[in-house]
Each structure stands twice: as structure tokens, then as C-alpha cells.
């Protein structure tokens, strides 16, 4: 019994240190400025890109959410950031410049709306001044047929000047499938060092009215003559209109997901989220391949078709609604 009472045999507290895996440490510590720079460089973006891990009071923030690291077998969640598109005002301009509107004259060859998503080349044969002050233009199309349209539905068949263009402007591009057809859309990026590539240094992003994003050069753009006060006024009620409203509100800090080539994700196709993988990332766009049928598609990295992006914006909206409710109490 005396041996059992020996102080050398009595229990004493012991601290055991265990080294945590690296990915756990990275998740627990806030990102440093060096991490910001390395993230920006890895995606070819400017050092104004910002990653931010929100706290409990972050519901109204426009900065990105960093998701926790998944297990190796799980689908990898992307980083979602609000990246400053550019620092120069000429690259982020989103207000219509104070310039004279282009003149519309008789016998002018124009691009005019024939159907909602189809514009064609024609000639103005009559200008009609309505009693209420509105002006209508009768256009006879090259491929037969005629239409009576407003200045909102006419574009000059000339290349616009750079100082006429701004994010939110109504523009047309020629259909890649039918050279007689021109497709309407909204200008969504001006040229900057963030959207250059090796093939086209000076390019613009356009969202067509069917939500298709495409990069084009200046000669491929046609500017609508009479811009609406509401840039969304010509869009039908649709998820695309909601997306463009959110996009223009957040500009020049658009929400973008950061995916890598080969990464697995889910994208809405025909009303269902389908699995695909990233084949190529090109600035704000990425080319994906659907696993089920091998079809390819170009998609914007902030599109609501992305499952992670739609969930992120839904969470952000819910947090904003809760904050509004608490303020009203």
C-alpha cells in the first residue's frame, strides 16, 4: 500500500499536441494579403480581387463567401468572390454618355427588330410622328416583309465609337448561324486587362436575351439608336431578366465563381441540374462538357444556372430579408 501512495505513481495531467492536417489549418485561419495575390494570379485576374470570409453580420455584404473544404471524394465547392472588374472609369462605365443621339433618316439602311429575338437588315421608307410625340419608323426588310418600329428597335449598321459604349447598353451582334439575323443583348463588360486573351486583346462581353454570354470585338457590335431609360425594359419577365438586374446592381463587382479546368459541377439544363466538368476557363466565361451526352456549353461564371451560385444568392437574399425584419422590429 505504501508503494501505491508513492508520489511518483500518482496521476498527473499531461498535454498531448496533435498536428492538424494542412487543409484544416487553412480553413481556420483568415486569408492573408499574400493569399489574396496568389489567388488573383492563379485565375489571371487583377490584384484587386478580394476574398472575404463573412461573420454573423455579413448578410448585406457584396463580397465573396469561402466555402469549407470538402472531403476528397465530394464535389468541390467553388470560391465565390466579388471581384473589382477594373480600376479605370473608362473600363467600368455604366452610365449612358452625354452624347448626341444618332440621327435616323429616310432611306437609311438599318438593323430593325422583326421579332422579339430576331433583328434584320432593312431600309427606312417612312417616318411617322404620332400625336403623343412618339416617332415610328416604317422599315422594309431585305428579305421581304415590313415593320413599324420605334427608335428603341433600330440600330445603325456602323461600328460604334468606344466612348458611346457602356455597361448596360442595348446592342446587337450578328448570329453565328445566320448572317442575315442579328441578336439583341446587353453590353456587360468593356475592354480591360482582365478580359484579354491571346486571340483578342480588345473585346466586349455581351449577354444575349436568351442568357447566352459571348465575347466579341468592337466591329461585331451594333449600338441601338435610342436607349431606354431602363436597360431591362426590352427584356421579357424571365430568370435572365432577374439575373441581369442583379448583375447591373452589383457592377463593377460582379459575383463570380472560381472553377479550375477538370473540376466537376452541376449546371441547369432544360430545368434540371446536370453534372458536367470544366473544359476551359476564359476570363468571366467557362466552357463545360455535360457528362450525360457530351454536349458543350459556354456559361458565365456568375450565372444562376450554376447550382452553387443560385444557392449562394438565395442565401444572401434570405440573410438580407432577416436583417430587414430585425430592423423593422
From TrEMBL:
Transmembrane stretches, start-end: none
- Main localization, broad class: nucleus
Q: Name one GO biological process term.
A: heterochromatin organization
Give this protein's Gene Ontology molecular function annotations: histone H3K9 methyltransferase activity
The listed locations are: Nucleus
Q: Where is the Histone methyltransferase Tudor domain?
A: 260-307
Which intervals of the chain are annotated as region Disordered?
Answer: 26-68
Q: Which Gene3D superfamilies does the record associate with it?
A: 2.30.30.140
GO CC entries: nucleus
Q: Which UniProt keywords apply?
A: Nucleus
Residues forming the DUF5604 domain are: 107-155
Compositionally skewed regions (Polar residues) per UniProt: 26-39
Q: Which Pfam families match?
A: DUF5604, Tudor_4
Cross-referenced PANTHER family: HISTONE-LYSINE N-METHYLTRANSFERASE EGGLESS
User: What is the name attached to this protein's record?
Assistant: Tudor domain-containing protein
Q: Which organism is it from?
A: Poecilia formosa
Amino acid at each position: 500500500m505504501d508503494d501505491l501512495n508513492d508520489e511518483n505513481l500518482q496521476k498527473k495531467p499531461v498535454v498531448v499536441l496533435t498536428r492538424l492536417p494542412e487543409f484544416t489549418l487553412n480553413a481556420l485561419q483568415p486569408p492573408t494579403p499574400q493569399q489574396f495575390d496568389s489567388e488573383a494570379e492563379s485565375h489571371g485576374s487583377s490584384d484587386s480581387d478580394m476574398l472575404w470570409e463573412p461573420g454573423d453580420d455579413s448578410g448585406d455584404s457584396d463580397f465573396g463567401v469561402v466555402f469549407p473544404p470538402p472531403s476528397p471524394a465530394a464535389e468541390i465547392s467553388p470560391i465565390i468572390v466579388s471581384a473589382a472588374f477594373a480600376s479605370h472609369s473608362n473600363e467600368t462605365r455604366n452610365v449612358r454618355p452625354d452624347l448626341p443621339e444618332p440621327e435616323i433618316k429616310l432611306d437609311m439602311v438599318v438593323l430593325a427588330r422583326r421579332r422579339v429575338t430576331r433583328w434584320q437588315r432593312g431600309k427606312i421608307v417612312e417616318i411617322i410622328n404620332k400625336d403623343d410625340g412618339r416617332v415610328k419608323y416604317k422599315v422594309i426588310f431585305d428579305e421581304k416583309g415590313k415593320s413599324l418600329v420605334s427608335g428603341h428597335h433600330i440600330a445603325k449598321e456602323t461600328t460604334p465609337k468606344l466612348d458611346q459604349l457602356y455597361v448596360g447598353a442595348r446592342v446587337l451582334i450578328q448570329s453565328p448561324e445566320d448572317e442575315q439575323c442579328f441578336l439583341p443583348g446587353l453590353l456587360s463588360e468593356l475592354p480591360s486587362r482582365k478580359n484579354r486573351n491571346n486571340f483578342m486583346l480588345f473585346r466586349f462581353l455581351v449577354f444575349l436575351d436568351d442568357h447566352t454570354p459571348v465575347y466579341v470585338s468592337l466591329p461585331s457590335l451594333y449600338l441601338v439608336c435610342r436607349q431606354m431609360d431602363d436597360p431591362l425594359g426590352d427584356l421579357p419577365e424571365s430568370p435572365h431578366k432577374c439575373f441581369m438586374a442583379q448583375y447591373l446592381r452589383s457592377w463593377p463587382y460582379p459575383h463570380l465563381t472560381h472553377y479550375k479546368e477538370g473540376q466537376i459541377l452541376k449546371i441547369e439544363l432544360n430545368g434540371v441540374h446536370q453534372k458536367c466538368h470544366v473544359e476551359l476557363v476564359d476570363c468571366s466565361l467557362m466552357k463545360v462538357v455535360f457528362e450525360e451526352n457530351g454536349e458543350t456549353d459556354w456559361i458565365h461564371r456568375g450565372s444562376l444556372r450554376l447550382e452553387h451560385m443560385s444557392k449562394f444568392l438565395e442565401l444572401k437574399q434570405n440573410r438580407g430579408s432577416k436583417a430587414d425584419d430585425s430592423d423593422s422590429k
